[in-house]
Amino acid sequence: MSLVIIGSIAFDTIQTPRGRRERIVGGSCTYCSLAASFFTAPKIVGVVGEDFPRDVIEFFKSRNIDTAGLEVKKGKTFHWEGHYGYDPNQRETITTELNVFEDFRPRLPESYRAADIVFLANIDPDLQDGILSQLSQPGLVALDTINYWIANKPASLWTALKKVNIFFANEEELKMLTQETNLIKAGKKLLQAGPKLIVVKKGEHGALVFGRSFVFGMLALPCEDVVDPTGAGDSFAGGFLGYLDKSKSLARKDVRKAGIFGSVLASFAIEDFGYERFKTLAHQDIEARFREFKKLVSF
Ligand code: AMP
Predict the structure, then answer these.
(1) From the alpha carbon of 236, which atom of ligand 1 is closest?
(2) Model's pTM, two decimal places?
(3) Biggest alpha carbon distance in the chain?
(4) Ligand 1 atom nearest 232 alpha carbon
(5) DSSP three-state, residue 176
(6) pLDDT tens profile 126-184
(7) Is the dihedral of CA 154, 134, 211, 222 positive or negative?
(8) CA of 295 to the centre of ligand 1 (A)
């Protein structure tokens, strides 16, 4: 099996009640591939500017991430600034500077085209759609987005959505996209459009997975000290898809287990700024937290 992840690689300026960090490395592809790297060897597609630190690319490689699809272009790396208050589920986007993203036309290296699982992480929906046409016949395609694209390119997003199997979204994005105020109605509307599974991320409250004939819920691990909520959703997707890639199965019990691993990886991501926590994370930590989750939901 193999997992290809296409998304943003960014400089993030982040302000939370625990502090401020200027231009630390973030981006949907970064969080997702690092989280997935604990289960499989993800292949990434993205673009950075000449200002992007080489040692971060070396760090990706040291985590078994294939960077053949990472382009270094003349210009500046994508920059995003977000501020959080005491509710980690609420964030305000201060700036989105697309920079090298503006005219990026991703091309999949030949060695990526037979991927079994493809994750179109948060990126311009036109680029997401363009990638789909370069793939041989992926077993599973998942897509994530952010309110910026729902507001700016809703038609492109609906076009891409029709071609995917799993849609990851948070509650606010789902309601905004479908223009529904009720989550169940919003989920149903999206299931009619194409995807077989809708994974609704509910931040510190966990996630809900909607299928055509079932719904199941997962709790997030109660966390006393959220340092930086950025990347929780992408880390969830990375843990989820990384586990599915490793287990080589889409049986319902494996989808549930994947959801728990997604929650486990998200719970680590928020313990420090940026992807700092992933630098020291070990497999034993992941297994131990998986057992904590098991205790949390058994009765
Ligand atoms: P998450 O907290 O999981 O929703 O993802 C946060 C990440 O998304 C940050 O690291 C940002 O760099 C990245 N991001 C923010 N806005 C955009 C955008 N418009 N397109 C692509 N990536 C973005």
Answers:
(1) 3
(2) 0.94
(3) 56
(4) 3
(5) helix
(6) 999 999 888 888 789 999 998 899 999 999 999 999 999 999 998 889 999 999 999 88
(7) negative
(8) 32
From CA 285, how far away is CA 291, in angstroms rounded? 10
Rounded Cα distance between 203 and 185, Å, is 20
Q: Is 89 in the pocket of ligand 1 (CB under 6 A)?
A: no
197-201/207-210 β-pairing = antiparallel
Cα–Cα distances in angstroms (integers) from residue 62 to residues 41, 55, 135, 228, 279, in the given order:
11, 10, 27, 24, 11
CA distance 266 to 152: 27
Paired sense of beta strands 10-16 and 19-26, if any: antiparallel
Alpha helices (H) in 141-275, listed in sequence order: 147-152, 154-161, 171-178, 183-193, 232-247, 252-269
Q: Which residues pair with 4 in a beta bridge?
A: 43, 118
Place of tokens 């990851």: 168
The 10s digit of each residue's pLDDT in 214-273 is 888 888 887 778 999 999 999 999 999 999 999 988 788 888 899 899 999 999 999 999
Q: Which of 13, 31, 146 to mutate to test the pocket of ligand 1 (most atoms within 8 A of CB)?
A: 146
Please say whether the beta carbons of 275 and 286 come within 8 A.
no
